[in-house]
Automatic annotation (TrEMBL):
InterPro entries referenced in this protein's UniProt entry, alphabetically: SBP (IPR006059)
Organism of this sequence: Oceanobacillus sojae
Phylogenetic classification of the source organism: Bacteria, Bacillati, Bacillota, Bacilli, Bacillales
SUPFAM superfamilies documented for this protein: Periplasmic binding protein-like II
Extent of the signal sequence: 1-20
Annotated protein name in UniProt: ABC transporter substrate-binding protein
Keyword Signal: yes
Coiled coil: none
Length: 540
């Protein structure tokens, strides 16, 4: 069961963009917040939220995992309607039509009362917020969102991540509980401990020891007939990001592509893909690849083939999700987790960690909304324990029971009848599959990241996790234009060259030419944009 649910979350991790932004001192947007606010029909606390029934229309992304259910008549939203006295009319859009329908709604001026999980970009939030189509929520959150406000006070990066350069907040975010490290780690490193024991080797703690282990695995060939794969994964970027902490780059997390803080001047950002440390990391990974210690198909392998290889016990190490949940106990129990490796210059930190802000645009309220205060209260419930329990577990006695103090899905979900899958059983009553909303908490999450092996791995990694993970910064209109032209061109070039350096298709002797090319493409202008965004982030 967990294995099935785990796949859904793992897919989310791969496809979801981790946006975020910096913070300012608040304010409204040309008075639009005050003009739209009513407040006459809203209770400041408790249920119902409104005494007179309120009907609202939400434009909502309906993930593929929710196929077959109707959010206008489903347990979770019926229950919440009865609690709040707010009846949401769900205008549901499939992911493949989301962008087109969202743009049509924004362009027509006939706006829904709110956009829910609609994957609005930071560029859209700023553009339509500054135009007045989206409400500034600063004062509304202060007054009507005590749960979100408490989270922002505990974790200041949340407010930084949803505040734009004009000082306004235009959305309420989807969050991961800050202490839910196992989910924020996403895929993590594993090593085949049975093979380590056969080789009479300890769990690697340095990049040198990791190399020696991979080389020994290749020579031993425990899978036989040369089929053993010392290191495998579904994407090379997972290995690059894990090793970044061993070579002193990506020192504030992966949310801002190729950007971190200059260790020689902590007031300045740097484009680390041009540094000597990054080059040294490329040399190391290139050595692994050229010696056949990395799966030679890692740039093209499909998930299905990776899982098949793992099920055949071909991997000596990997960066992936919980092995027992995915490969079964016989194969998965062979693996033990790795933390950060100490690199050749003494760097040893775990930098591959997402921001606690999963998506800044969970809920966006339009200027046509008849009761923004009630709508903010409606969303704020899902940032507290009761709301998280409702969204991810449902209704006690209907979809879950409490056993030994823990919420556990009911038997008809855990063991559905006939050909019904676990996912289909959940989707009959709940809508969270493929759509994290509010805050996801460890206590109410039943996926692979809460399995014993994953939690133990997170506990081992925790002491090496970097102190501050940057969210994705936010930018002005002009800065966005530079990012979408110069920035995208440079990042695409760096990614292409990264892969060529690793495979040896480009010789690292040409490094100086690589750096010069990036400089000529406009790196100085790009850094100025990022520096301005970082300075705003720091000033809040």
């Amino acid at each position: 069961m967990l294995k099935k649910l785990f796949f859904l979350i793992a897919t989310l991790v791969f496809v979801s963009a981790l946006y975020a932004c910096s913070n300012d001192d608040g304010g409204d947007s040309d008075g639009k917040e005050g003009e739209a606010a009513s407040g006459d029909n809203v209770n400041a606390e408790g249920f119902p939220i409104v005494d007179e029934e309120l009907e609202l229309t939400f434009f909502a992304n309906k993930p593929a995992q929710n196929e077959g259910n109707d959010w206008n008549d489903i347990l979770i939203w019926n229950e919440y309607r009865d609690l709040t006295n707010i009846d949401v009319n769900w205008n549901l859009v499939s992911p493949d039509a989301l962008e087109e329908n969202r743009n049509l709604a924004l362009g027509s001026g006939d706006l829904p009362d709110a956009f829910f999980l609609a994957q609005l970009t930071n560029t859209d939030l700023l553009r339509y917020g500054s135009q007045g189509s989206f409400l500034a929520l600063n004062d509304l959150i202060d007054e009507y969102a005590p749960n979100l406000k408490a989270l922002m006070e505990t974790d200041p990066t949340i407010e930084k991540a949803i505040t734009f350069p004009d000082g306004n907040i235009y959305s309420m975010p989807a969050l991961i509980e800050e202490d839910f490290l196992s989910l924020r780690l996403s895929a993590r490193p594993w090593v085949n401990e049975e093979w380590l024991n056969e080789l009479d080797m300890d769990i690697p703690e340095t990049t040198g020891e990791f190399y020696e282990y991979l080389k020994a695995v290749k020579e031993l060939d425990p899978a036989g007939n040369g089929s053993t794969i010392p290191y495998g994964g579904t994407a090379i970027v997972e290995l690059v990001q894990w090793l970044s902490g061993s070579f002193g780059v990506m020192n504030h997390g992966p949310s801002n592509t190729n950007l971190d803080l200059d260790p020689n001047d902590e007031s300045q950002v740097r484009y680390y893909a041009t540094t000597d440390e990054y080059r040294e990391m490329m040399e190391y990974i290139n050595m692994l690849y050229e010696e056949g210690l990395i799966d030679q198909s890692i740039f093209t392998i499909e998930w299905g083939q990776f899982l098949a290889n793992a099920s055949d016990n071909l991997y000596g190490s990997m960066i992936f999700y919980d092995p027992i949940e995915l490969f079964g106990d016989e194969i998965g129990s062979q693996y033990n987790s790795l933390a950060a490796l100490e690199g050749p210059d003494g760097h040893q930190s775990y930098n591959k960690l997402s921001s606690s802000v999963w998506d800044p645009s969970n809920l966006v309220i339009s200027s046509d909304n008849p009761n923004p205060e009630a709508t903010v209260r409606w969303m704020d419930y899902f940032y507290g324990d009761e709301g998280a329990e409702l969204y991810y577990m449902g209704v006690e006695g209907e979809t879950f029971e409490v056993e030994d103090g823990e919420a556990v899905y009911s038997d008809h979900i855990l063991n559905p009848e006939g050909d019904m899958t676990f996912e289909q059983a959940i989707a009959q009553d709940l809508t969270w599959l493929g759509s994290i909303s509010g805050i996801i908490k460890e206590d109410y999450f039943q996926g692979g990241e809460t399995a014993p092996q994953s939690l133990a791995a997170a506990e081992k990694i925790e002491p090496q996790v970097i102190d501050e993970v940057w969210p994705r910064f936010t930018f002005t209109d002009e800065e966005n234009r530079i990012l979408q032209s110069t920035g995208e061109d440079i990042n695409k070039y760096v990614e292409e060259m990264r892969d060529k350096f690793i495979t040896g298709d480009e010789d690292l002797d040409g490094w100086d030419n690589y750096v010069q090319t990036i400089e000529q493409m406009g790196m100085e202008e790009l850094l100025e944009v990022y520096q301005a965004a970082y300075d705003r982030y720091q000033s809040n």
